[in-house]
Design brief:
By secondary structure, the chain is mainly alpha-helical. About 60% of the residues lie in helices and about 5% in strands.
């Protein structure tokens, strides 16, 4: 039997690709934290790979991060699809358990029992009590703040004089931060929903009447 037909090998493929996605996400989160700390010191440059870059160019590393997230997610989705097609329900659930118990904070302790929205079946709602949801929201907010200029805050505090020549740059960077956040949220939401479908808990939740969502499902999500 070839490796791509061996269910155990496919399960390991899901776990390995999920670990890769987790590393990419944690790298992006660490980068956002580092840039935020640099901004709080008032510095105009940040260091990355022994080189200095203007703080206003912080969006560029997140462009690379977004591409890496998309690519790693695509590999994970392919591995999930293969496991669903050729693996057993027990093996799929084992993959879910192994990854959700790993060090990947974006899925660690995640609740698999998401339900589709009663009116929009492609929209899945997560429980805000899910620890992975809280960490994801903090990470997304951190990325946005790392890109958005802090100059406006200094102006409001009276520390700086408002420079009208930089208005459009600030607007474009803010819009860019929103776009990066939205794109990564959609990428993450897509692989997470597919990944959650490996769990028996998700199957049990979605086989109930979607027109009557649970209270937990009503409270929020991705």
């Amino acid at each position: 039997m070839s490796d791509d037909k061996d269910p155990d090998f496919l399960e390991k493929g899901v776990v390995t690709n999920a670990e890769t996605v987790g590393k990419v996400l944690m790298t992006g989160t660490g980068l956002a934290g580092m840039i935020l700390l640099v901004k709080l010191t008032g510095a105009e440059n940040f260091k990355l790979f022994d080189a200095e870059y203007p703080i206003v160019h912080a969006w560029f590393p997140f462009l690379l991060f977004t591409f890496a997230h998309w690519y790693a997610a695509a590999l994970l989705l392919m591995a999930i699809t293969k496991l669903k097609e050729k693996g057993t329900a027990d093996l799929c659930h084992t993959a879910w358990q192994e990854v959700s118990a790993s060090g990947n904070l974006f899925v660690r302790g995640a609740v698999a029992a998401m339900k589709p929205h009663p009116k929009y079946p492609n929209l899945y709602i997560r429980d805000p009590g899910d620890p992975a949801v809280v960490f994801t929201l903090v990470a997304v907010l951190g990325m946005m703040l790392a890109i958005i200029p802090f100059d406006l805050a200094f102006v409001l505090l009276g520390c700086k004089t408002f420079d009208w020549s930089q208005v459009w740059a600030a607007v474009l960077l803010t819009l860019g931060a929103v776009v990066f956040a939205a794109v990564n949220w959609l990428i993450g939401g897509n692989w997470l929903v597919q990944f959650a479908q490996l769990s028996k808990d998700h199957v049990l939740a979605t086989t109930t009447n979607p027109a009557e969502p649970s209270a937990a499902a009503d409270r929020g999500g991705m």
